[in-house]
Write a structure and sequence with these properties.
Elements (H helix, E strand, L loop, with lengths): L18 H16 L5 E4 L6 E2 L2 E2 L1 H10 L2 E4 L9 H13 L9 H15 L11 H10 L13 E6 L5 E4 L2 E4 L8 E6 L3 E6 L2 E7 L7 E2 L2 H28 L7 H7 L2 H12 L1
Parallel strand pairs: 1-4, 7-11
Antiparallel strand pairs: 2-3, 5-8, 6-7, 8-9, 9-10
Length: 273
């Protein structure tokens, strides 16, 4: 993001170009770097924000909560946001060359350390450094809302027997005590959290890769204990059922005496004789 009047540049690396990640990135930059809200946010036709000047539901809610306006330029009109395009070119030629990154977090760490120096450079179009003009521009912006906008990926699902939830192409383990119940999933730029009835049942670092399975060893241990307790309970129940339904074996002569079959047999033998 670039403040148009001062040229002050801020940036953060995002895991994707989905609506949730784009809005989370804007929220982070506005709240941490500018600490204010501009009257208008200018975007191109990014599908995560909207297309043909029709904003996504998330983008409309984001702008409404901040009390700002999101303006989308015409397709294939880079000059309409030339300030940002020049900033992108400056990042590509002045920040990226000669650097190595071991992780997204390291990329953002190096970027955060480099941006203050970049904002001290003299801009030809303004004749001043962006950092020197930022205070005056922020003074013309509005304050941040007391309630921050909802950003990131959210979902509500019933936890299956495998105690894993699918979030943006990856599977994350959840405490198996929540199996069969509804859980609320929230995925931000850095963390994935899962809550059940307001109680935290999972917390993982957001994996930026795809088709990965992220498992908490504590969840595996809990599942093992629950499985052992379930099997033990079934064994005890089976033993009680077998004991309660055990029937004694009586001698056949007892039934003969009950129905007086011995006397009938003796009478028949005398008649035959």
């Amino acid at each position: 993001m670039v403040a148009a009047w001062s040229g002050f540049m801020v940036a953060v690396l995002l895991p994707s170009r989905t609506t949730g990640d784009l809005l989370a990135g804007m929220r982070q930059l506005l709240s941490m770097d500018f600490q204010a809200v501009p009257k208008t946010l200018v975007w191109d036709n990014e599908s995560g924000i909207g297309q043909h000047r029709r904003l996504t539901v998330g983008a409309r809610a984001f702008a409404g909560t901040l009390g700002t306006r999101i303006f989308q330029t015409r397709p294939r009109d880079p000059e309409a946001k030339g300030v940002v395009e020049r900033a992108n070119g400056y990042l590509q030629t002045s920040f990226l060359p000669g650097r190595g990154f071991g992780s997204p977090a390291e990329f953002n760490t190096q970027l955060a350390a480099w941006l203050p120096r970049a904002n001290q450079r003299l801009l030809r179009r303004t004749g001043a450094a962006p950092a020197a003009r930022l205070a005056a521009e922020v003074a013309a912006m509005t304050a941040l809302p007391p309630v921050p906008p909802v950003v990131g990926f959210t979902d509500r699902v019933r936890l299956g027997r495998d105690y894993y939830v699918r979030v943006l192409g990856n599977d994350y383990s959840v405490d198996p005590v929540a199996i069969g119940r509804f859980v609320d999933i929230t995925c931000g730029l850095e963390q994935v959290t899962v809550r059940c009835a307001g109680t935290m049942v999972a917390e993982h670092e957001h994996c930026w890769d795809l088709r990965r399975t992220i498992t908490d060893p504590a969840h595996v241990a809990a599942a093992k204990q629950l499985r052992a307790a379930f099997q033990s309970r079934n064994t005890l129940t089976a033993e009680r059922v077998e004991t309660s339904h055990r029937v004694g074996i009586r001698s056949l002569s007892d039934y003969d005496a009950l129905f007086n079959l011995n006397a009938a047999s003796a009478q028949s033998a005398k008649e035959v004789a």
